[in-house]
Amino acid sequence: MKKILLKYMTRFTTLREEEQQAIAEQILIEEYKKGTMILRQGEIPDKCYFVLKGCVRQYSIDETGKEVTSNFYTEEQAISNFNHHKQDKSSAYSLTCLEDCILVVGDLDSEKDLYNKYSQLEAMTRMMIEQNFGEVQDELASFIASAPEERYKALLRKRPHLVDRVPQHQLASYLGFTPESLSRIKKRINKDHF
């Protein structure tokens, strides 16, 4: 599993192989069973994650008690919780493993020590965040401007693996419509392709 992390570091840094190995040796890799909640809404996060294998769902529960899915993280995606703008620093989201997962677990306090020792690691993290933020901005703009069927088609183009990995009611929530609407859209699209 560390090979995935090393490949990722190679893509985003010019760290020498021995530096990459040293970082990989200091990084904690944990396995989580399907259904494990790694962060609860309202808790103050002290960890960040990088998915080596599996799928993690990000969601919140609104004031009516309804679960609203806001993201799915899969292989080679970083999971960060940006809550420093909040006075109480609590998370607005919960994170749950939808599959058995293998995650790099970063302790936010010890992360600073690694950054001080390996400045390129901080630059890599910044590039990952910038890339992720750009993708989120593009997705949000597209989401707002598109009809439900177009949202589903965009998902099929950009993240088709989610269709088979994620429960349909959670996928519908992520796309902003009901499971019944998702079912109708899928039928229409399948009928149009045959």
From TrEMBL:
Name of the molecule in the record: CRP-like cAMP-binding protein
Occurrences of domain Cyclic nucleotide-binding (ranges): 11-57
Superkingdom classification of source: Bacteria
Natural source organism: Paenibacillus prosopidis
Secretion signal span: none
Keywords, ordered alphabetically: Activator
SMART domains according to UniProt: cNMP (SM00100)
InterPro entries xrefs: cNMP-bd_dom, cNMP-bd_dom_sf, RmlC-like_jellyroll
